[in-house]
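Researcher: Sequence recovery benchmark, item below. Answer with residues only.
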């Protein structure tokens, strides 16, 4: 009898906590997020005139000379099909040890690519975030120094002046939170959308 009562109490506790934590809590938190922070709760999608260009929190790979380049991205092992029936390639961390030969080769290949695209820089040191992955593998930001490194190439290929490029970079630069947490960072997607005249 005592054992049956124990099992009944355990079952009731399981049911109640499942409903509270799995349903009620989820609905309440989602509702609050949608009411107070709808933009952030819906993936911070940049949308202009009904066209969605991507999330400002997820990097996109840019490799052409007319756009700012972000951090090095490592492609995942496969693709998936989105709601529109398009194959989408996802990225993730490389998980390579900084002491490994593969990591050194990856960085050197990126250094060579950066130098070839910016011959005017000569032997000037390349900001490290332009030649390495972020921890997540899809960080949408680069440092102001990495953005500045690309100004002359962008001016040459877009027809804009260096001052115009720097003004765009300044508009897309996010300062440390509360002025002290983190570092200043430049959102690459926003810069490129402004370069294209979309934003």
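Model:
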């Amino acid at each position: 009898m005592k054992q049956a009562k124990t099992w009944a109490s355990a079952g009731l506790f399981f049911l109640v906590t499942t409903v509270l934590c799995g349903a009620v809590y989820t609905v309440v938190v989602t509702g609050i997020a949608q009411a107070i922070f709808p933009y952030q709760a819906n993936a911070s999608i940049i949308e202009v005139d009904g066209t969605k260009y991507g999330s400002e929190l997820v990097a996109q790979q840019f490799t052409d000379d007319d756009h700012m380049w972000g951090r090095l991205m490592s492609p995942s092992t496969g693709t998936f099909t989105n709601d529109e029936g398009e194959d989408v390639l996802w990225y993730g961390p490389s998980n390579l040890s900084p002491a490994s030969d593969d990591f050194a080769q990856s960085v050197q290949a990126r250094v060579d690519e950066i130098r070839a695209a910016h011959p005017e820089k000569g032997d000037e040191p390349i900001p490290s975030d332009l030649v390495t992955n972020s921890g997540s593998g899809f960080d949408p930001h680069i440092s102001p120094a990495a953005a500045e490194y690309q100004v002359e190439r962008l001016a040459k290929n877009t027809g804009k002046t260096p001052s115009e490029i720097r003004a765009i970079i300044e508009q897309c630069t996010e300062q440390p939170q509360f002025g002290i947490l983190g570092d200043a960072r430049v959102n690459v997607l926003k810069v490129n959308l402004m370069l294209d005249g979309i934003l």
